[in-house]
Each structure stands twice: as structure tokens, then as C-alpha cells.
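request received
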Amino acid sequence: MTPPNPTAVEEAPAGTPPPRRRPSLRLPRDRHALVDNFFRFQSLFGLVAVFLIAIAVSPVRNGENIFLSSGNLANIVRAVSEIGIIAVGMTFVILIGGIDLSVGAVLGLAAVGSATLMVDSGMGILPTVLIVLLIGTAFGATQGAIVARIGIQSFIVTLAGLQAARGIARMWSGGLGVPIAYGDGPKEAPEAFSLLSGSINGVLPVPAVLFIAIGIGALLVLRSTAFARHVYAIGGNEKAARLSGVPVRRVRITVFAISGLLAALAGIIHAGQLNQGSPNDGSGYELDAIAAVVIGGTSLAGGSGSMGGTIAGALLLGILNNILALNNIDANVQLVVKGLVIVAAAALQKLRPRIS
Amino acid sequence: MTERPLVRMTGIGKRFGGVQACRDIDLTIAAGEVHALLGENGAGKSTLINILSGVITDYDGTIEVDGRPVSFGGPVDAQRAGIATIHQELDLVAGLSIAENMFLGREPRTRLGGVDIRRMRRQAAEHLRTLGADLDPRRLVGSLRVGEQQLVEIGRALSLDARVLIMDEPTAALADAEVERLFETIKELRRAGVGIVYISHRMAELEVIADRATVLRNGGLAGTVDPRTASRDEIIQLMVGRSVDALFGEGRNEPGKVLLDVRNLAVTPRRPTPGRTEPAGVDLTVRTGEIVGLAGLMGAGRTELLETLFGAGGSGRRSGQMTIDGRPYGPHGPRAALARGVAFVPEDRRGAGLMLEHSVAENVVLSALATLTTLGVVRRQAVRRTVAEQLTALAVKAASPAVAAATLSGGNQQKVVFAKQLLTQPRLLLLDEPTRGVDIGAKAEIYRLLHRLADAGMAILLASSELPELLSLCDRVVVLHRGRTVATLPRASATQQAILAAANGDDAKETR
Amino acid sequence: MRYARRAVAVLALTVLATTTACSVEKAGDGNGGTDAAAECGSGKEFLIGMSQANNAEPYRQVMNDDVSNAAKDVPGFKVVVSDAAQDNSKQVADVENFISQGINLLIISPNEAKPLTAVVKKAYDQGIPVIVLDRKVEGDAYTAFIGGDNVAIGKAAGEYYAKTLLPQGGKVVEISGLPGSTPAAERAQGFREGVASNPQIQIVASQTAEWLREKGQSVMDAMLKANPDINAVYAHNDPMAEGAYLAAKAAGKESTIKFTGIDALPVPSGGIKAVEQGRLQATFQYPTGGREAIDMAKKILVDCQKDVPKTTTLGTTQITKDNAAQVYTQLGGKQ
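response:
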């Protein structure tokens, strides 16, 4: 009584899909899996490829490959750590089909907050960090609530949030960067805060370790929690998710809160690395973070993507920046190259067989 | 029909990789004929019409139009040759007017090169009149009902001077009254000498409208019959290759106590949404073990009622009483409904039922994640086991639980939606057009499933546009008209005529 | 799948273990002094890293050009320029990359003082001579600072206002540079010192336009609404003064209001040309120090001079219609 042909070639409605759109169905299973895995770990392969290219083209000094020197590798991860942490939060937002443009401004706000609370208000590190993280989380959650409850597109809400966060940061800091001096006296921050700019055993920069730890944490969350399934479901088909009993609003708000929280954390690290909290810091970081997510293979339409991809994407951007700089490529040419890489990554996604 | 056919397809074959989609198929279409194309999903219908409409350009065999061999380089060539296709999912732009849609891409020009809007509207109005459709060509297509949109598509085909019209499941989205009207239009076209290829899953329609039926099975030709004389069983046997037991179920055991009781339910929307008919005085009860049908014309408010019962309707003030098990019931959202044991299988399974790009397994467990997690972490083993159980229980045909839901056939997709909702262990199952776009084999399976569930004590409320389905499946049929209950017909007194009369708002006989 | 999960867990534990087991060292202590400085002397090749804060500012572009052009005249000098695009973090990374590359000397025009102090110290501690241009860093971990004296320039402008431009006094609005940047603060401070001798001059408003011409225009629009009777506009740089001029012109007030700027870049769009063409009354040269930096680099690297002056303050030139054309040629401006 059942259709005898489970590999039905034509269950899709006529006309819309020219059949050649799905070449994957014709492949034998193992080769199919191979192709699928290539696209799934596209960013990882990209990362390895860029890494190998970087080794090949790196200048060599006194017989040492400059790119591979431990100091340089540490610098790369340190340099992408803030963008990377933001991109981790951005991945959640993009997975539900949203976007968060406010993260760079929230980073600036958090940097100002860290500096002001410690230097001007004389607070300790723990209360400062907690308050700043709370501010970031609340800011993100508010944006999420506006998106979820009123139904305004996240692009617009967070564009407004960007402006608001910058404004608050400027008001709070009086428009000036708040320098952080260390010591026990008044108007001085606790010495321990400067550890954020240090490294473990002189090798692993602290921000890099934080980035990797958060990245792995988020990767585990995204792999194995019900929350993550809900995130994917909303991005895949919001209506279906709602009708399936997914708490769409709550998940939305949580996702934006996570993004705000991580942007604030990046802001604290930023302040610690630069010994200053400036309201202008972090401008344009949202675009770098989005680029990392996109290079990582997460679809801006939501519903598909991975945290591993984002981490790889961030590192790839970092390596790219580094190797271009080490070879003294003109700054303007660097911008063009970065643009091309983003388009190439997105184009590669398009080649991916749509149905796995 | 003595002269040579408009189109003659000979020895058509097409292979996709390892799958032989079509094999040595001959098909002729004569002027003024309605030629039905039958077959289960995967039988080769879509491939065949894709070849005829120029979507597929590399195939075996020959096509002749008016006796001359042709070779289409694309859909445009086919259109030039007078072959137009109306797809199941209509190719209209919602944001443009009827006239703009009809002439999309070939708008009449003024001497200055601008679009000659007046001429466009005039011609569009003419075509609509030919079809007996009383529509203002300036209206936006997005504001039309599906049946009206279909008329626009047909109008576009007419404006192309189409002599062959391929219609892919044209009645799938239509209510019965609209089907009537479509048939009138088809008869008009037939009189005008247009050859029509008509694809449908609905047997009853074919008896009314088709002159000839070609049945495909597994990519090959299974036979050609005259649907006016051939029995349904005969046709179904051609389609599935086996003889058919009774497709439709028998009466079943006695229903139990009242589970859902709805009294005078009405929703006053905060902002009226065009095209929605909110409940405006609904009375109904559903008992455990009972299947209650919801009948009504397009726009009678069946979907809206089910959504309201599931807490997924439009925002607005709700009045009247709803109880489940005698306790007040008024869900704020799907979550609350699911918590009270109410599950919903929506009409639009691609748009609202499934995450098409996600795996079958991910779809199946979505509703029931809470029972499959420890401290928020999904238990993979449990998920794997549950998915396997559900797929077996519902006989879902999928290469593996890891394939994307989109790769499944319509019937199997529907079963996945069922599996997802059944995992929540509902006591009341709300179904909106559960067999739309599902082939006859899968349909039968779904009917059997519903019987099994009802026998196990589940209460089922089912909305359908197919009257035979309601009549054979349901213990009672509740008929809606403009959001109100106008009749409740027990199985014994429910007939097509009685339901249609009530649905059209004629004197409703309240029987219970 | 289970394997992958275990691998991740092990990785996480490793990270955790390293985090807890190891001491955390402060920045700069780590890569203790590999001596990056090559032996000085003539006839050798030297790689000079020029870390620019923001190429998008014409002033900084001219600075880059001055450095590159001057370096062409010194045999063996090769200059590589990086652009931080106004991002402190990027500039830190730029300098780190220079250190990795093994540059022989660093010229840096810092985006902001505090955030770049640490990385400049890191380079300096590794034995790389560091010449800081235009904006200072904190502390004294650098070889030399070359810059204009913004207070002096502001003061020169102020005195020009007090004695020449508005001897009878009047209402002045100030359009200031990026808040938090030293030159903005100093140009404001110097100006107030300069106009103090003429109590008739009132500074009625002060708004930031972040060094940008378009913001100068919008800020001036707003200030004109609030203070319709302005006599003069003191802008912290020429582009903002030009922006303000455009706003006044739109309001039909360009002839009643006087405009002055600072920087006097020898480029066609610069302040000198604006003075020559009569849009600005005056501008005050803010020297880039690019040529001077290469001179000093030559002393350090080629001439092996050990004690270069820690601070070099460059003077300013007042440019009015009288000397505009002449100064333009003198500074090597393109016609």
C-alpha cells in the first residue's frame, strides 16, 4: 500500500526545482558523505589551508619562520580574542535568523564601565566585572525583548541599540577615554586587572585562553542542549518551532542576552588589554564578528551553522590579518583581500548541496 | 478528436543518476480534451510534465506539437509553442496587482516605452471575464484567496494563447465551492479547444472532469482508462500495482466521555487581518475515542478555530467557554496547549510543520525535547531510540533519520509531523487538512493511524476540504459558516448534500 | 560522536589545567629581551616600521608621505607602513607584527596614549629604538618624541584672535577634535591662554566634530541655530573649519563670520589652499614631524648617535593670505 519508491525524485512540486539542483542525491553514499563533510567543516579546511599558506609565504628571519614563532601565534589569537568572543554570541543570534549590530558599541560601553567603576568609583574587580556583565546582559535582553515582543526586525532594534550604547558610553565617560592606572590608591584600579593583558607562562595570552574556553563552552552548549535545538528550530522555521511548543520568545531574549553578555565580557578584556575604557572603542567590531560567523559557514538566514565554524572563522581572519601584515601588504589592499575572502566563503556555502 | 493530437510524446525516458524517473512513456493530448495524469508520488508525473513544459531539456524520446517534432531549450520555448503550466505552488508575486502578474515580463508598452497600464488592465479584465471571474485587475494578488489566485494563473495562461494547459493539483488548496467553479472554467476551456493535462490525487474529481486518464507507476506507463466508466478500485490498483482493501475505515467502538467542550467561542481580533475568519460563535464537543470532522467552505474559519484551540491564533479577546475534562481551558500559546495534552498538525506542513532543512530526527523530537534531556543536556541515546521507535511506528520511509526532512515525500513528511506531535502524548489531536498533497497509499496509512489513535482513546478534531474523507472518517461532522457552527451532523445523517447546504449557509438543521 | 565528545572534554580539561596550574605573567615580561636592534652603521639595510593611527586622516597621510619621501633619500632605509584605522587594538597588533618581523626601528603615531603605552614599551624593552610622533604615549619607555606643541599652536591662534582677528572682541565658537585626544585638549587649552589677553572675546560654545569635515558642518549648523551672532569659528583642524564654512555659507553668513583652522597641510584640499582661496582667515601649521623622524632615525641607525634628544618640539607657522602660496611651495605641496 505504500509508495514503493522511497528515493522519490519528484516529491517536490513541479516546476520550482530543476532536478539538477540536487546532484547530491546521485552520489553514492560514501562520496556523498565526503562532500557533505567537506562543506560541514569548510571553515576548518579553510583555516588549515590559510594556515599552511601562511607558513609558506611567511618571511623568514635568521632561519626562523616568523609566522610560526610562538610569540606571533600567541599574538594572532590574542588579536582575534575580542572579535572571537563577540562572534560566539553573534553565532547564537544569527542561528535564530537575527543579527546583533550593537555588540561593538556594547563592547565600548563595557570598557568604559570597567574603567569608570574601578577608577572613579573605587570598586573591586569582582563587583566591577559582575556589574558590567549584568549591564551587557540586560542591554542584550532588552533588545531581545523588543524583537520578540513587538516584532521589530533585529537589524533595526540593534542598530538603534548601537546608537544608544555609544551614547550611554559617551555620557558615562564624559566623552573621554578613561585611563586605568594600577595601584592601591584612590583613582587606581586593582593590580590584578592588568592580568588580562598578560599571558600564562609567558606564552598563552589570557584573552586568547578566555576566547578558546568560551568557544569550547559554547560549542558544547550548541551540540548537546535542548536550548540549542530550540535555537536551530527557530532559525529553521519559526512558525513550526512555535507550534511545536518551543518557547520562541524566551529563547529569542536569551540569545540576545548571551550576545550582550559576551560583548560586555569582550569589553572588559578590551579595557584590561589597553588599560583604558574609551567610548569610541569597538566601532566596526560587529562587522568583523559577522564576517567570522559567515566565514564559519553559518547561514545568515538562520537554522544552520556551527560554533566550531565560527571559532575557525575568527582564527582564519586573524591569521589572514597577520600574514598580510607580516608581508607588509598595503593596508588598503588588505581590506580588499579580506572582502574577497568573505565573499569566497559565502560563495562556497552556495555550492553546498542544499539537502544533505 | 479525430484530427491529429496537439501534443504527442513518444518513448519519453529520463534518468536521474541511479533513479529511472520515467521510462518509455507515450502520451497524447488532443484539442478539447481533459487528460488526467495519475500516479503516486514518485511515479514520474512531475518529471513528465517538467519535460513537456521545457523545465527538463535532456531526455529520451520525442515530443511533437501539431505533428512537428520540437525540442525546448527552456520553459519559454514551451510557452511559445502554446504549452502553459499552472504549478501547485502558484508562481505569482503577492505584492503586484492581478494585471501586473498576468503580464509579468511582457508588459504592453506605450509609444514612449513606459508600461501601458490601461491596456494591461483592459486585457486582464477581458481574460478574467472569459473565466467568469469577477475580479478587479487592480487588486493585489496577495489579497486574493487561493482559488482566485488560481484563476489569475489560468488567465495568464490564456493571455499566452496557450493551447495546452498543464494543471498540477489545481484543487489541492480549494474548497468545494471553488472546485465547482474551477470545473466550470475547465469546461469552458475545453469547449474552446484547449487541451488540458490534469493532475490530481482526488478520484472523485476525475470522474466528473476527465475524459481520459493515464496512470503512471514507478516511472512507467501502467495503463490508460476512461475514468467515467472505470471503477475507483480499478484505477487505484493501476496506481499501486496491487488490489486495494477498503481504503476508508469502518465505524468503530463507542466514544467515551466528553474531553473538549466549546460553548459559544468567539474571538474579537485586536486588528482584523484580511483573509482571516476568527471564531464567531462556535459550539462543539469532542469525546475521547471520537473523530469529529470540521467542514466548511474556504474562509469558513476552520483553520482559525483549530489555531485558537491550540493557542496559536491571532491576538484578540476570547469569549465563550472552553473546557477540557470539565476544567476551564484557555491556552496562551502552543506551549500551554501542549501542556494540557492538546497537539496540532497544521495545514501548511512545509511552512508551519517542519524545519525542512533539518534532519528527520531533529524534527521528530522537537516538541518532546523536555522529556529527553537531563539538566538541559539532550540525551543522545534516548533521542536515537525515540526517533527510531516513532519512525517504525508510523512507517516513515526515510533513508535514515539523519536526512533532511525536505528529501521525504509529502506523505512521509506528514507522518514526521504526526510523529512530532504524538510524542507529546496528546489526548486531543487537532488536524488541519492532514492528507493534502499526500498520495493515496500514504493517505490510507494516515486514516488507519487515526483510527488506531481514536481506538486508543484519543480525541481527534479534523478539518478537511474533502467531503468523502470527512464522511468516511468521522463520527460527527461540525459545519462552520463564517466562523459559526451552523450544523452538527452525526455520521448517520451526514451526506455531501447536507454538509454543502449547511456550509453555504442554507437553512441549517441543528441535529445532535 | 562519542569519541568527539570525549576529545572535547579532554581538551577543555587541559585548558583548565594549564589555566590553574600556571602562573600568569604580566604583559611585556614574557618575551624578555631578544635584542632586535641590528648593529648600527652606514652601508647597511634597515627596516623601519611606521605604525600609523589612521590613514583616513589627510594629516596622517601627509605624515606617511613625509616619512616615506625622506626615507628615500637615506640609502638602506626601507619603510613599511601599517594603518590601524583608528582602532587601538589594531594598532597594538600592528606593532606586535612589526616586532615579529624584526624591524630595526619603530616610528609610531599612536591613536591614543594609554592603550599603546604597553606595546611601545614592549618594543623598546626589546631594544628597538622607538620614535613617537605627534601623540605621546605614557611613561618614558621610548627613544624620542617628536611633535608639534599643540598648546603653543592653540596659544598662537588665540593671540591671533586677540590682536589681529577680533581686536574689538566678539563671540567665538570652538569646534574641537575627538574628545579624549591630547591635541584636542591642548589646542583648547592653548587657545584659552592666547585669548586671555583680550577679555572682550567670549567663547560662547564648544562642540566636538571628531576632526571630521562633515561633522564640522553639522555641528556648525546646530551652533548657528543656537548662536546666530557668532563672529568667528576656531576649529581644531582645517577640515572642520571648512565644514563650518559650508554650514555658514548655507545660512548665508559666510562673509560675516571668520574661520580659522589648524594643520595647514600642503595638499590641494588642505588648509593652506583654503586660506589662499579666502575661505579661512588663517591656519596654523601643525608639522607632521615625518621628515624629522627620518632624520633622527638616520642619526640612530646610520650615525650610531646614542643620545638623541628625548623630546623635539616643532614650531608652528601662522599662515594667512599673505604667505599662503609661498608656504605651500616650501612644504612641497602638489599643485
